[in-house]
Design brief:
single chain, alpha/beta, Purple Acid Phosphatase, chain A, domain 2, six-stranded mixed beta sheet
Length: about 400
Amino acid sequence: MRTISFIIFYTIVLTLYALINYYIFIRGWQALPAGSRGRSIYVALFLFLSLTYIAGRILERYWLGPPVNFLVWTGSFWLGAMIYFVLFLVAIDFLRLANLAIPVIPNAWLANIERTRLVLFYGVTAAVLAIIVAAHINTRFIKVNEIDISLSGKGTASNVREAEDNRMERVTIALISDVHLGSLTPKNQINRIVTRVNSLNPDIILLAGDILDEDVGPVIHRDLGKAIENLYAPLGVYGVTGNHEYIGGIDEAAEYLMSHGIELIRDSVIKINNSFYLAGREDITINRFSGRNRKSLEEILEATDSGLPVILMDHQPFNLGKAAAAGVDLFVAGHTHHGQLWPFNLITRMVYEISRGPGVVDGMKVYVSNGIGTWGPPMRLGSRPEIVLIRASLNYS
């Protein structure tokens, strides 16, 4: 059944990919003069660009090297270009359709339609290239978002007294998510992220899933784990699984991450310094990729002392109300990328109760991170990669 689901999924994705590429191709083809040399160059270049991502992703399963990296990088930029070519072309086609009802296009443009099409061809191409460059540069500028919150345990006086020995009054948390370590992760970028996180001197570091970008092979080949080993906080570095850890193979991913200094919390809870609980859930896609079910939040938290605050990491920010009802004080997540590329942020705002940033749900504090890496196109438009620094005061009464 799972194999059939994969076949159906990839059939739909590849069909959609082919249709989008055909739409872009045919509109460009129509803009170039018939019989011109430009059309021959255009066909060859378009075929190359549209096939590079698929070819690169297939080849990297069997061979890792500069030629494959080139294909993956080129194809990934093409994925981003496709989005903005479609947006521009749909806008132009809408304008043409509107012109049939209400003339809005200057007659001079229509009188020399061949020239107008050629100008639009080069104009749209230049605009898309400019967007790609700007959006890629944006991925390099990491923003630190700082918030101050108060967390309170909900226990009785006896619970509180049991927590008094060596308890902390404040904890500083560095939260990052969606690093997506893989073929598209420059080593110097990972080193910059690690240096920046450590410079904040957090008490604890939390990685809210999608630490790896599917296949762990490119991560091992490029030894990216060596950089993340340098993350340091006195109370430790903790992470949870995301959907990409499951897509790439959860057992190998988990083993790799734990062998490089990240303690994964998988449907369990840890008491930190006798001051608060840190709970972590398996990603919600566990059933789809492994056939197993994740524990309920009530099962995970049943042994906790309600006199101490509870911080929950769950990669995807769903079921926030249920988490609040279970007694969680702070819910941290990632996954959304806040759309990563405009206008997809409009969609994530509709899908998720909180698409990014801080919020409160039934008294529970929430922070959904934009993420610090990218998936697919190595581009960001409409959001900055972020590190979240949470300064939490811990109250026990």
